[in-house]
Every structure is written in structure tokens, then in C-alpha cells.
Design brief:
The protein has twelve helices and nine strands. It has helices at 2-11, 47-57, 60-80, 93-96, 101-112, 127-130, 132-145, 160-166, 176-179, 186-201, 214-223, 239-249; strands at residues 14-23, 28-39, 43-45, 87-90, 119-123, 148-154, 171-174, 205-209, 227-229. It has an eight-stranded mixed barrel, surrounded by six helices. Helix 11 links the parallel strand 8 (205-209) and strand 9 (227-229). Helix 3 (60-80) packs parallel to helix 5 and helix 5 runs parallel beside helix 7 (132-145). The protein is globular and about 45 Å long. The N and C termini lie far apart (57 Å).
Length: 265
């Protein structure tokens, strides 16, 4: 599978799909680039499976380069169409610890003519576990270039508060494991409320992942969350579908579908 993944990257057979993040006024806050791979014999390979293989084998930098190159090329195309939306790309601790990573990202932005503010890198607190100083230096260099940083999977690690203080992030993403039961579990709702308050006290924006129903949307809005991402808004879409989705929303943004009226008796 590792060899097949390497060949798929070389052949450009790995795809990126894009999932929107929207604010509660309907405005599109950006999109997250999510990697997808359809194996010629195995069919769809779960991202968690082949990303884990890439991370454990040393292929992760190659995969990240591929995703960054593909995503920035798409951002450039969207900007040429008048679609000014930032795109988020996930990077692993291995990427952050690779010498010269920040400079390589800056060079790639320049080559595509994309401003740094149109790219957001999503990291997890695990970047600080192996070599905290190198990670801090790389992240500082990235933010120095103007790249926005987002802390993904917040609340699932062991030292989130300590790490949050040390990471130069402007956005915090609440993990879907807390969001999924928000409407039915008071403890999860309290965790989300405290997280939103903490993030706002630090000047961070808060995005909730895995939002799939109206009730969760309403609760998150009431708790002061800034934006949501999930199937309620849209699933991750191939580039052409994402482009059509963005063009259809235009300046009025995304509107929640109204609940269907009961059928007349």
C-alpha cells in the first residue's frame, strides 16, 4: 500500500476535496482541504489509514508537499474567478520538524502568486511533544510570513492548556467528539462552552467540527462559537463541485435550509 501511495502521488492520482467553514451569518470563512485516494483495486482508502502509513514511513513530507501544491494551485484558480476564500491544509508534526519547512511554504506561496493570508495550516498540539523549540521556531517563522495557524482536535490531548499558551495560533477547532453529543450531553455542552470562553479570552476564533443537525447549530450559536464545519453545511466536495458551491452562494453566503412544512392532511 505504501508503494502504491508513492506511485499515486507521483502520478497525481490523489485528490483533494474541500469542505466549507461558515459563520453564523452565513458568510464562508474558508475551506479545509481534505485528501482522498481511490486505489485502483482496493477502492476508497480511508484517509486515516494512508496518512498513518505516510507518517510512519517517511512519506509524509512528500504527501504534504503534494497537498500544499494542489491546494495553492486551486486557491490561485479561485482567486482568478473572483473567489477570495482561504484554504486550510493539515500538516503533521513531522512536517513542522522538517528543516526549512517554513521557507518552503513561503516559496510555494510566491510561486503560485497566493498571499500568505489565503493559506491556513492546521496543526495539533503534538507538534510540541518531540522537539518543542524547533517546532516553536518553525511556527513563528510561518506566522512571520503571514500564514495563519489553526489548532485542530482541541481537547483530545493531554496538555491542551499548556500547549495553547505556547502555540502562535489564531483559531481553535473543537473536536467533533465533543460536538456530536452537544445537544444531548450536558457535560459535553459544558466543555464546549468553557472552550469557547477560553479561546475568546485569548483572542482566538472558534470553529466547531462535525456539525450535522440544526439543534447542534443553534446550541453552538448560543454558546458564542464563531463558525461551523460539517455535513449540515456541506460534505467535502471535489474541486468542481466546491467551485459551483462557492459561486452559487455569492455575496449572500450560505443559508440554512428551512425545515420542510408538514404535508396537508
Amino acid at each position: 500500500l505504501l508503494g502504491d501511495l508513492r506511485r499515486a502521488l507521483d502520478a497525481g492520482d490523489v485528490e483533494l476535496h474541500y469542505q466549507p467553514k461558515v459563520r453564523f451569518d452565513g458568510q464562508v470563512a474558508g475551506l479545509e482541504a481534505l485528501v482522498r485516494w481511490v486505489h485502483p483495486e482496493r477502492g476508497k482508502v480511508p484517509p486515516d489509514e494512508f496518512i498513518a502509513i505516510a507518517e510512519s514511513s517517511g512519506l509524509m513530507p512528500h504527501l504534504t508537499e503534494y497537498v500544499l501544491e494542489t491546494a495553492l494551485a486551486q486557491v490561485a484558480r479561485w482567486r482568478a474567478q473572483g473567489l477570495w476564500v482561504p484554504v486550510a491544509v493539515n500538516v503533521s508534526p513531522r512536517d513542522v520538524h522538517t528543516p526549512g519547512f517554513a521557507g518552503a511554504v513561503a516559496a510555494r506561496l510566491a510561486r503560485h502568486g497566493v498571499p500568505a493570508g489565503a493559506l491556513q495550516l492546521e496543526i495539533t498540539e503534538h507538534v510540541l511533544l518531540e522537539d518543542p523549540q524547533r517546532a516553536a521556531d518553525t511556527l513563528a517563522a510561518l506566522t512571520g510570513h503571514g500564514v495563519k495557524m489553526s489548532l485542530d482536535d482541541f481537547g483530545t490531548g493531554y496538555s491542551s492548556l499548556v500547549h495553547l499558551r505556547r502555540l502562535p495560533v489564531s483559531e481553535l477547532k473543537i473536536d467533533r467528539s465533543f460536538v456530536a453529543r452537544l445537544a444531548i450531553d450536558n457535560e459535553d455542552a459544558e466543555i464546549v462552552r468553557c472552550t469557547v470562553d477560553l479561546a475568546h479570552s485569548l483572542g482566538l476564533l472558534v470553529v466547531a467540527e462535525g456539525v450535522e443537525d440544526d439543534e447542534t447549530w443553534e446550541r453552538l450559536r448560543d454558546l458564542g462559537c464563531d463558525a461551523v464545519q460539517g455535513w449540515l453545511v456541506a460534505a467535502a466536495m471535489p474541486p468542481d463541485e466546491a467551485t459551483a458551491w462557492l459561486l452559487a452562494r455569492g455575496s449572500r453566503g450560505w443559508q440554512r435550509p428551512r425545515a420542510a412544512l408538514p404535508a396537508a392532511e
